[in-house]
Protein: AraC family transcriptional regulator
Amino acid sequence: MKKTGFREDPFYPVQPFFVLNTEHYYKKQCEGLPVSHFYSFMAEKDNHYANYVIPDNTVDILFCCEKEDPSAFVCGSVSRQVEHEFCTGKEYFGVRFVPGTLKGFLKLSGSELMDNCIDLRELLGSDALLFSIAGAKSFQERIRVFQDFMEGELARREPEDSAIVDYMLKRIHESCGEIRLCDLSGEMQYSVQYIRRCFTETVGMSPKKFCRQLRFQHALKQINSGAFRNMAEISQEAGYYDQAHMLKEFQSCLGLSPAKYANIINLKGYGKQILYV
Structure:
């Protein structure tokens, strides 16, 4: 594994407190669907910050790699920050999916997972994958184990037609969440009601809520990068009406002001803790 310059996915979400409460956070970005990236970390014994899970629009599978008693949960996006307790000193392996892509893999809709976690063992009816992941000797080997499993599962399933939602996600990301639903309706020649229903059933939230969380995540990543001089620039870049609007969103989704979050990021050296593979 090697450490490279700090970067974050241009479109897909981050969970910064997973990084802040670890010594080293390993990450492998993916170019193809349905996985955005893989990650791995060991929970510190003395966490300086709460282990917050924050709104991110996506779904993760998180494995606790305890060899004799592994566990894994499929975790949907949350509506607001919630605290999650990791077992200190234990190693975790995660798979973060591209928004809207999980249904073709595990036959779960985003709406079933919103604000919810489901035991992966119950979904699969077996714990073989959990033991294979836990028993792997490295981060790269765990990635290979999961990819082999996923390819096998996808090969056994009929491909699903997700062209409508795929197009909506593409256009929403291109506009950083600023495109209107009526404009999408005109482009696609479907009614607003129909495309809203398709999107909500697949992704687990309305397009409006998805765009709202996308702007929040975009602002987070601007703060993480340190590329902007002040919060006014960040709020403008992220598509907020003004700085007060961004402050309100951070308080709702994170329970912290943007300035306080930036102080935590700078103090901990966020970008230096991420090791890209």
About this structure: Residues 1-6 have pLDDT under 50 and may be disordered. The chain has two domains: 16-158, 163-256. The chain has 13 helices and nine strands.
